[in-house]
Amino acid sequence: MINLELPKKLRASANQAHQVAAQIFRPISRKYDLAEHEYPVELDTMAAMVDGLSDSGTQKISGAAGGRSDEGEGPATLPVNANGGNMSALLNALETSWGDVGLMLSIPYQGLGNAAIAAVATDEQLERFGKVWASMAITEPSFGSDSAAVTTTAVLDGDEWVLNGEKIFVTAGQRSTHIVVWASVDRSLGRAAIKSFVVPRDAPGLSVARLEHKLGIKASDTAVLLLQDCRIPKDNILGSPEVNVEKGFAGVMQTFDNTRPMVAAMAIGVTRAALEELRTILTDAGIEISYDTPPNSQHAAAAEFLRMEADYESAYLLAMRAAWMADNKQPNSLQASMSKAKAGRTGTDVTLKAVELAGAVGYSQRLLLEKWGRDSKILDIFEGTQQIQQLIVARRVLNKTSAELK
Ligand SMILES: Cc1cc2nc3c(=O)[nH]c(=O)nc-3n(C[C@H](O)[C@H](O)[C@H](O)COP(=O)(O)OP(=O)(O)OC[C@H]3O[C@@H](n4cnc5c(N)ncnc54)[C@H](O)[C@@H]3O)c2cc1C
C-alpha cells in the first residue's frame, strides 16, 4: 500500500526549502521578474542553505528511477515501502517553487539534467557527476514534442565524442556547469541510437548563441546552445553506447520518469501560492469559505475556491504517488505523465482564476498573482506539453504503441 508518511529527515529538508522560499525568494521575486537575464546574486549568498538542499538533492536523485539509495529512516538498502530521494526532490521543488519558480529553476545543482543523470548514469558516473549543476538539452529548431527527431550527432573519435548540432530553449543553459545533451550516435538506426551525453561548460566547441525573452519565469535563463565539433571524453556518454534497436528509446526516455513529477511539483507549488493569496483576498472581502456547507450554497467565489482546492489536492496526491513509486522501484511512466498533466493544467487554471477573482488588484503588479499566472504556463509546456502527457497516458491505458496512437 502507498505510504505517504514522510520520514523526519524529509520533513526537515522540505521545511528548510520553505524557509529559503519565504525568506530569500519571495522578497526578490518581482525584482528578477522585471530584470530578465540579470543574474540573481542572492543565489550566491544562499550557498550554505543550497548546499543543504543539494545534499538531500543528490542523494534523492541518486535514489530516483534507478533506485540506488534511500534516505528514509529505514535501512540503507531498502526500499520496502519507503519515502526517500524522489519524495525529497519533489517536496523541495514544491516548496521552493511556492517562493518563485523562476528562481527555483536557477538554484545551482538542482537542474533537470541532474535528474537525467540520476536516471541513466552508472555508479562511476554518479560519483563523477553527482555534484555538478546540469541543465538538459533535448529540443532543437526542428522539433519540440517529438523527442525521437533528434538531429544532433555524436561521433566517436579516439577517446572523445565529437558533437554537432543546435539546442534551443535550454533552461539554465547559460548558468549550469554541465549540459546533458541528447544526440544520435547513428542517425540511420533511428530513435534507438539517441543517447545522452554530459557536456562540461568549458568543453571546446560549446557556445551560448543567445538568451530568450519570455512570458514568465524571467529569473531563469533560457539559452540557445551551439555544438560545433564539441569534444567531450568518451566516458561522458550516459548509459550504454550500444545501440539496441529492440529496446529502442527506453534508456533516455527514462529521464522523464524522474523529471515529470518534479515539474508537476513546481506547478503544485505555484498553485498553492496562488490559493493562499486568494484565500486572504476573499477573507478580507468578507467571503467565508466553509467546509461544512455544500459549495452551491456558498458565495460563488468560495465555491470556485473549493473546486480549485480539490484540484490542487488531487494534483498533489498524483505527484506524491509518482515519486513514491520511483522510491520503491516501481515503473512509474504512466503515473509521472498523469501527475504532470494534472498539475500543469491545475497550475494555469488556478493562477488565472485567482487573477480573475481578485479583479484589478489581481491583474496589477501590486501582488504576485499576475506573475504566477505567467510563470505557471511553462509548467504545462516543458518536459512534455499537456497534449503529450495525455497521449502517453492514453497509450499506456489502452496498451497502444507510439506507432498505433500518435
Ligand atoms: C521557457 C522554456 C524552457 C524550456 N526548457 C527546456 C529545456 O531545459 N530543455 C529542453 O530540451 N527543452 C526545453 N524547452 C522546450 C520545450 O520542452 C518544448 O517547447 C516543448 O516540448 C514543446 O515543443 P514545441 O515548442 O516544439 O511544440 P510542438 O511540439 O511544435 O507542439 C506545438 C503544439 O502541438 C501539440 N502537439 C504536438 N504533438 C502532438 C500530438 N502528437 N498530439 C496532440 N498534440 C500535439 C503540442 O502539445 C503543442 O500544443 C523549453 C521551452 C521553454 C518555452
Q: In DSSP terms, counting alpha (H) and pi (I) runs of 4 or more, how many helices?
A: 14
Give the beta-strand count.
8
User: Could you tell me which ligands this complex binds, including any ions or cofactors?
Assistant: flavin-adenine dinucleotide
Largest sheet: 4 strands, mixed
Structural class: alpha+beta
Shape: globular
What proportion strand? 5-15%
Mean pLDDT: 90
- Give the N-to-C terminal Cα separation: 34 Å
**H/E element string?**
HHHHHHHEEEEEEEEHHHHHHH
Q: Would you mind describing this structure in some detail?
A:
- The protein is an alpha+beta fold.
- The protein is 48% helix and 14% strand.
- It contains 14 helices and 8 strands.
- Strands 1-4-5-8 form a 4-stranded mixed sheet, covered by helices on one side.
- The protein is globular.
- Bound molecules: flavin-adenine dinucleotide (FAD).
List the helices and strands and how they pair.
Blueprint: H1 8-34, H2 42-45, H3 47-62, H4 85-99, H5 101-104, H6 112-120, H7 123-129, E1 134-137, E2 153-157, E3 160-171, E4 178-184, E5 194-200, E6 206-211, E7 222-233, E8 237-238, H8 250-253, H9 255-284, H10 300-327, H11 333-358, H12 360-363, H13 369-377, H14 386-398
Parallel strand pairs: 1-4
Antiparallel strand pairs: 2-3, 3-7, 4-5, 5-8, 6-7
Helix pairs in contact: 1-3, 1-4, 3-4, 4-9, 4-10, 6-9, 9-10, 9-11, 9-13, 10-11, 11-13, 11-14
The chain binds flavin-adenine dinucleotide (FAD).
The site of flavin-adenine dinucleotide has 21 residues, from strand 1, strand 3 and helix 14.
